[in-house]
Amino acid sequence: MRWFVLTLLVVLPAVALAKPKVAVAPLEGDPDGKITAVLVDAADDHATVTRPTKVEKAMDKLSLSELNKKALKKLRIELEVEVIVHGKVDKVGGKKHLSLVLSGKGKKSMTIDVTIGPTKTLKKDLSKKLDRKIDEMTGGDEDPDEDEQPKRFSEVGDEPKKTEEEDRPKKKDEEDRPKKKDEERPKKRVAEEDARKSDDEEDEGGGRKHRKKKHHEARNPMTAGAVWVDVGAEIARRTLTWSATGMTQPPSVGTAAPAGRIGGEIYPFSFDTPSGGAAGLGFYGDYARTVGLSIQVPGSALTPSIKDGHYQIGARYRFVFGDASAAVGGAYWRRWFKADRSTLTSPDQLDMPDVDYTAFALGGVVRFAATPTVSAFASADLPLVLDSGPIGTAASYGRGTILAFDISAGAQILLGPHYALQIAGAFNQVGISFAAAPNSMAATRAVTAATDRSYGLNATIGILY
Fold first, then answer.
1. What average pLDDT does this structure show over 171-189?
2. Which band of pLDDT confidence, cut at 50, 70 and 90, is reported for residue 139?
3. Helices (DSSP H) in 180-297: which residue ranges?
4. What are the structural domain ranges in the chain?
């Protein structure tokens, strides 16, 4: 008896705390998945949620083109959930409106109608209504299809159980009239079949042309979008320091200036689905250049202008994991810092070598959703430097071993269905260990290495889909 009581004390709280299992299907009329993401977030407060991407895969597996009663039952069994939430987003009186249907066991179904407002308000309204509806929906008996119903009496001669209609005394003409063949079989759900035919078939030239209804997999536009293009401003700083001995080592360099910036990426085969096959193939690039940058020549009033900028363009392959994604690839990569020496008495008057790095960069980027409207990202590239420009010539510091890396991280904040603010920081370093060949400046000035660093903080406005 004591063990029985202890078992109850352990099991009952666990049962009480167990959440019902609910699946959320992609919403119609929500191509960017923003409202779907809020719905998932609200349902997650009260249930263990199967996300829209998994629901979509289950529908494809079962070849379901629409969510009618029979399809919902198959889907619920496949996903092993108690309730499926589905619906659509449309406009009513100029305002966006969300209509939801909660489908459970048997004939149970309930609806929720919400006017779409700010994200926080929408989530609060949905959470409150879902809490009550899910609680009422969970439980209940299964409603098997008519052809799957068990017999109402056994083979040993039990009297069949009469329904209320059968128990009613029949009129004489009803008893004498022979039953029509059509009355002996279950009635069809005519309205339901007509609706299905209108979706799956269309009449062309007197014939029937069958077509399968196409589903668009729900996606987070910030982590798995098909297109992202942004433009904005950046604060850029560059430093060049030396490792040297002796009295003739070159001076360090440090500059800072504003810059303009543009970037973007596109996955041209992912408009229908964000992952799998060709959908993962994409192209990306970015370009930034400082504005009004100059440097003062020590011991003079001269301030020659500086061309300072960088860009890269390449291809990636992306993998999507729910509300997160990771992409790997390679790009042509270039970064330069060059002075305009045309106003100087001689080019050597400015004791600073120009650089113009070109490389093939291997790297990747990861993105994940922090909230339905905020995502974070981080990227890393390893440029395999092919050329360092003027600093690596025989007349300058000469050749050397070059190691470089490029990292950035930031966040995207969704401002509207197709607009977002991106804030990011970036850091780049190119380290050169000089070979100190005879007659090179590295040898004559006892320079062993140089470290070229660039820092950036940028804010851009982007269009996404």
1. 49
2. low
3. 190-200, 221-224
4. 18-146+186-217, 221-464
